[in-house]
Amino acid sequence: MKKITDSFLYLGYWPFAGSFGFNTDILATNPINLSVVLGVLVFFGKGVLNDLLDNRKQRILKTIRNSEELREGAIEQLEKARARLRKVETEADRFRVNGYSEIEREKLNLINSIYTTLEQLENNKNETIHFEQQRAINQVRQRILQQALQGALGTLNGCFNNELHLRTISANIGLFCLGR
């Protein structure tokens, strides 16, 4: 077994130039080399590693804060959107109800207007019929009166002789002159 002083890294002993080679005793050289490498890494790398870890930690915390802010903003926007949706749904329901009632009201107004127009047309028709009946009755009366007058004149002309005719004319002219 070799001594620790035979180790490659032993600082007090330097081998001759001609005896350069690999130390194959793993148990003697590896723990010492590893402890030296780890010591150097810990001593020099601790600050760098701490800086890297602190930077990473700060980025992670910043990302978490940003995510929380975005989440809160998204929740706020979601609540606003839900409120707008409720408002729009309420307004749509109101328009739907008002629209249906407005349609019903307009339908009833139209029906009432049609009934009123039909009543006016019926009244106009009845007035026209009554007017035409009165006109026809008046025409019949005029014809009857004309025929009666013509018949009376024919009878009178047949009954009158010249002398009676002249006396009647004279009497009528006398009445006419007295009336003035």
TrEMBL record:
It is found in: Membrane. It is a single-pass membrane protein. CDD domains: ATP-synt_Fo_b. It holds the Pfam family ATP-synt_B. GO terms for biological process: proton motive force-driven ATP synthesis. It comes from the Eukaryota. InterPro entries: ATP_synth_b/b'su_bac/chlpt. One of its GO terms (molecular function) is proton transmembrane transporter activity. One of its GO terms (cellular component) is proton-transporting ATP synthase complex. F(1)F(0) ATP synthase produces ATP from ADP in the presence of a proton or sodium gradient. F-type ATPases consist of two structural domains, F(1) containing the extramembraneous catalytic core and F(0) containing the membrane proton channel, linked together by a central stalk and a peripheral stalk. During catalysis, ATP synthesis in the catalytic domain of F(1) is coupled via a rotary mechanism of the central stalk subunits to proton translocation. Belongs to the ATPase B chain family. PANTHER family: ATP SYNTHASE SUBUNIT B, CHLOROPLASTIC. This is ATP synthase CF0 B subunit. It comes from Baphia racemosa. The gene is atpF.
